[in-house]
Amino acid sequence: MAEDLESRVAALEDRLRALDERVRASERDAAAARVLAGGADRDVSEIRTDIRDLRQATTSSFNAMREDLHDLHSNADDSMAALRGKLDALSAGQEQITSLLTRLIERED
After folding, report:
1. CA 23, CA 30: separation in Å to the nearest integer?
2. How far apart are CA 88 and CA 85, in angstroms?
3. Helix residue spans in the chain (DSSP H)
4. Helix, strand or coil for residue 1?
5. Residue 24 CB: number of other CB atoms within 10 A?
6. d(CA 54, CA 76)
7. CA 15 to chain centre
8. What is the C-alpha separation between 66 and 11, in angstroms, rounded?
9. Does this model's pTM top 0.70?
10. 43 vs 26: which has the higher pLDDT
11. Each residue's pLDDT tens digit, 78-92
C-alpha cells in the first residue's frame, strides 16, 4: 500500500508540475494578449485622430475651393457686365457711323 501511495503521490506531483507549467504559459499568453490589446487600442486611437485630421483638412480644402469658385463666378459676372457695356458702346458708335454715312449718301443723291 505504501508503494501505491508513493506512486499516486508521484503521479499527482507530475500532474501538478504539468498544471503549473500550463498556468505559467497561460499567464504569459494573457500578458502578451494585454500588451497586444493595448497596442491595438493605441493604433485605433491614432487612426481615429488621423481620420479626424483628414476630415478637417478635406473640409477646409472644399471650403476654400467653394470660395474660389464663388470669387471666379463673381469676377466672370463683372467681366461680362463690363464687356456688355463696351459692346453696347461699340454698337451705338456703329449706329452713329451708319446714320452719318446714310446722310452723306442721301446728300450726294
Report:
1. 10
2. 5
3. 2-108
4. coil
5. 10
6. 32
7. 58
8. 80
9. no
10. 26
11. 889 999 999 999 999
Pairs from 48-56 (Cβ < 8 Å, separation ≥ 24):
none
The sign of the dihedral angle between the CA atoms of 103, 105, 106, 108 is positive
Q: Which three cell numbers stand for residue 49?
A: 485622430
**CA angle centred on 63, ends 55 and 68, rounded to 5°:** 145
Amino acid occupying residue 41: D
DSSP single-letter state for residue 91: H
The full 3-state SS of 2-24, as one line of letters, equals HHHHHHHHHHHHHHHHHHHHHHH
Report the amino acid identity of residue 100.
L
First to last CA, the chain: 155
Whole-angstrom Cα distance, residue 97 to residue 6?
133
Other Cβ atoms closer than 10 A to 21: 10
CA distance 62 to 60: 5
Angle (nearest 5°) at CA 14 between 13 and 18: 115
